[in-house]
Amino acid sequence: MIENIERIRDEARSQISSAPDPHELDRIRVHYLGKKGLLTGLLHQLKDLTPDKRKEMGAVLNQVKSDTENHIDRRQTELARIEIERELTKTPSLDLTLPGQYAVHLGSVHPVNRVIDQCVQALKRVGYSVATGPEVELEYYNFEALNTPDDHPARDVQDTFYIDPPVLLRSHTSPVQIRTMKAQKPPVQILAVGKVYRSDYDLTHTPMFHQIEGLMVDDNISLADLKGTLYYLVKSLFGARPLRFRPSYFPFTEPSAEVDMQCISCKGNGKDCRMCKSTGWVEIGGCGMVHPNVFKAVGYDPDVTSGFAFGMGMERITMLKYGIDDLRSLFENDHRMLEQF
Ligand code: PHE
Predict the structure, then answer these.
(1) Is residue 26 part of a domain?
(2) Fewest CB within a 10 Å sphere: which of 24, 52, 159, 168?
(3) Which atom of ligand 1 is nearest to the CA of 287?
(4) CA of 144 to the centre of ligand 1 (A)
């Protein structure tokens, strides 16, 4: 009997070790350990033996039985591990923690828009609200109501793009002043931002550029208010800087001035300075007290109403702020340039 047991044990072992899958393993279990299994059959045969033999064989048989069970359990664990490994290597697995294959390029705010935003934020803090107007404008708003009649030389100065007179592309943001004042009574404290167009193209001019325009109207506005506002705006863009107000001329303001800021590159000493062409000052915009004729055009009483207005070119401010010396680089959309902001 002992040889029989050993033969069955060895045979079971080799079958278990080479069982290819859990299904086959189960079949082997039934074959040896099931109710009608080979080892179970041998257990039934014990009753035919002498008590001594039965005890001896019983012990051997139980040992073989439990060894076989352990063997099957181990193979089962092994097969489960093999199955998992096979699953993992079958198709390229998706690992969400791996870095992506392609770099993600994030866009950024264009430097001109960045400067516009800064101006808007600064002026909003002191009570301005943003007003808008059309880019395709009428002569009346762009010139006439701004005290610039037909034969006025300023109409030529600005090299206006006409679509079909009196329709034109606005040459400045000042028509927004007229539209706003016609729509509301004083006090007015607005800020107009946007694209303006002039037939001009060289190193320092593009046919389209951005302006920001401030207008403050009430019954007691003075030149001091205008200056204070410009000092404040410049401070929020460049840090506190000396300003210079040069008498100038605009049809819609009186008195008028051009505003110069002390050069941020040479700090005003002008030595071999490219930014200010060695003058120590850079021009940043135009301004003045609203002309009485403008008030008349919008139906305000110039005897009780006073106000100031100022305008600035945003490309110019951007170039000064970031030390850009070619205006065209703001329009080329070259990523290598824009990525620096
Ligand atoms: N509109 C003027 C220009 O484009 C600038 C300006 C605005 C001047 C407001 C005075 C007051 O040149």
Answers:
(1) yes
(2) 52
(3) 10
(4) 15
Number of domains making up the chain = 2
The structure tokens listed for 314 are: 């945003």
Among 287, 268, 144, which Cα is nearest to 216's? 287
Q: How far apart are CA 263 and CA 288, in angstroms?
A: 22
> Is residue 198 a contact partner of residue 168, using CB atoms and an 8 Å limit?
no
Residues 126 and 18 in one domain: no
Structure-derived torsion over alpha carbons of residues 298, 300, 306, 309, reported in degrees to the nearest 10:
-10
Ligand 1 center from residue 59 Cα (angstroms): 111
Whether the Cβ atoms of residue 278 and residue 270 lie closer than 8 Å to each other? yes
Tell me: do 73 and 123 sit in the same domain: no
Pocket test for ligand 1, best of 155, 174, 294 (most atoms within 8 A of CB): 174
Q: Are 186 and 305 in contact (CB under 8 A)?
A: yes
For 229-260, the pLDDT digits (tens) are 999 999 999 999 999 999 999 999 999 999 99
- Site to probe by mutation for ligand 1, drawn from 177, 198, 213, 308 as the one with most ligand atoms within 8 Å of Cβ, is 213
Between CA 109 and CA 117, with CA 115 as vertex, the angle to 5 degrees is 75
Q: Look at residue 286 in the predicted model and tell me its pLDDT.
A: 98
Q: How does DSSP assign 89-155, residue by residue? A: HHS----TTSPPSSPPPPP---HHHHHHHHHHHHHHHTT-EEE---SEEEHHHHTGGGT--TT-THH
- Residue 324: inside a domain: yes
- Round to whole Å and give the CA distance between 111 and 148: 33
d(CA 264, CA 262): 6
Whether the Cβ atoms of residue 38 and residue 6 lie closer than 8 Å to each other = no
Q: Is the pLDDT of residue 337 over 80?
A: yes
* Residues of the domain holding 11: 2-88
* 286 three-class SS: strand
Alpha carbon of 79 to ligand 1 centroid (Å): 84
Indicate yes or no: pTM above 0.85: no
